[in-house]
Amino acid sequence: MNLEEKEQYWRKHYEGFKNLNISKNEYCRINFLNVSNVKKWFYKFDEQSNGKKIIPKKPVETIVSPSNFSIIEVKPEIVKTELIFRFQFNGFTLEMNQLPEPQWLAVLSKQMGV
Questions:
Q1: How far is CA 48 from the centre of its chain?
Q2: What is the pLDDT of residues 74-105, one digit of tens each?
Q3: Using CA atoms, how far apart are residues 17 and 41, in angstroms rounded to an integer?
Q4: What is the DSSP letter of 112?
Q5: Packing angle, helices 35-49 and 24-31, rounded to 10
Q6: Which residues contact 54 (CB under 8 A, 6 or more apart)?
Q7: Residue 38 CB: number of other CB atoms within 10 A?
Q8: Helix H or strand E segment including 28
Q9: What are phi and psi of 84, to 5 degrees?
Q10: Alpha-carbon distance 89 to 38, whole Å?
Q11: How many whole angstroms separate alpha carbon 3 and alpha carbon 11?
Q12: 3-class secondary-structure state, position 57
């Protein structure tokens, strides 16, 4: 992904986040994003929207030397899945997207007669 594509990707997340009333950490958890990446890009977009100029970091010189190695770029495939926990009590099914507190589950099972 080149810099322009990265900026488009993160700007889409930035615009989507602005319309929600949740924390950055919660947004990251929901969208499987790295918190430090989100904070870095969102800070950049906040600065741009406030009219401040961001001074880019000085480029690092790269020394190229002959090698027998090849450069390999690995891009992980991002697959979003939703985990559902299913509990069955006396013919009833309870589905949840996160595990409940054990105490709550114990009270529920007692009340259901399990």
A1: 22
A2: 776 766 667 777 877 677 787 887 777 888 87
A3: 12
A4: T
A5: 120
A6: 44, 47, 48
A7: 19
A8: helix 24-31
A9: -120, 130
A10: 41
A11: 12
A12: coil
Interval 3-53: pLDDT, tens: 899 999 999 999 888 888 899 999 899 889 999 999 999 888 888 877 665
Token pair belonging to 55? 């001074």
Q: Which of 48, 52, 60 is nearest to 7 (CA)?
A: 48
What confidence score (pLDDT) does residue 18 get?
86
Reading the block at residue 57, the tokens are: 């970091």
Among residues 56, 65, 71, which one has the least CA distance to residue 7? 56
Alpha-carbon span 106 to 89, nearest angstrom = 12
